[in-house]
Amino acid sequence: MPKTPAPKAKPPKAAHPRAKSDVGKRAAAVRTATNTSTMAAAALVPVDKPLTTQQRAFVKFWAEGDTIPNAMARAGYNDQPSYGYRMAKMPNILALYHEEKRLYEEASQMTRKKVMDMLLESYDMAKLMSEPATMVSAAREVGKMCGYYEPTKTQVNVTLNGQVNVAQLGRLSDEELLKIIEQGAMNDPQSALGHTPQLEE
Length: 201
Fold this sequence. Notes:
59% of the residues lie in helices and 0% in strands. The protein is mainly α. α3 (53-63) packs across α4 and α3 packs across α6. The longest helix is centred in the middle third of the chain and has 18 residues, at 91-108. 7% of the residues are buried. The mean pLDDT is 77.
């Protein structure tokens, strides 16, 4: 007859269960913690806020040239890179990142100018050897260093003026609508009705 494994023993209960006052203290601490759930909130973190050891490791790996997801993995974070991108917006993280980057450049005796010179030299060599693919590659890297491939930030402001105008047009009589059409003022129906728009100063 085969042996059945012994049932797993339950872990012992804590000798001192968390007191209700401890739960209240923890909840109060969580409520006062800085919210970093969005990029905008992460950018508002105070620059003098101390970093955790895990955050310091993340910054070190990021400054060495790792991508944000790789730096997060090496620092021991989970597989959610969104937190890494939010951390990259935090002023306290950026301050240490720029310092680490500067130290790394000093140690390697490498500057942006030296890298740019090397890329331009490789572009010229590829041009002499008639290697267009290498020329394009060097030009692409120069463009990246100059920031030409940075994503453009487009801000869209939505106003309710369009809805207000549609609502106003819905309340107009047929005669008033006909007057607007005749005057050709579809872009500014208020002026066609004799209303003067308020100018913002």
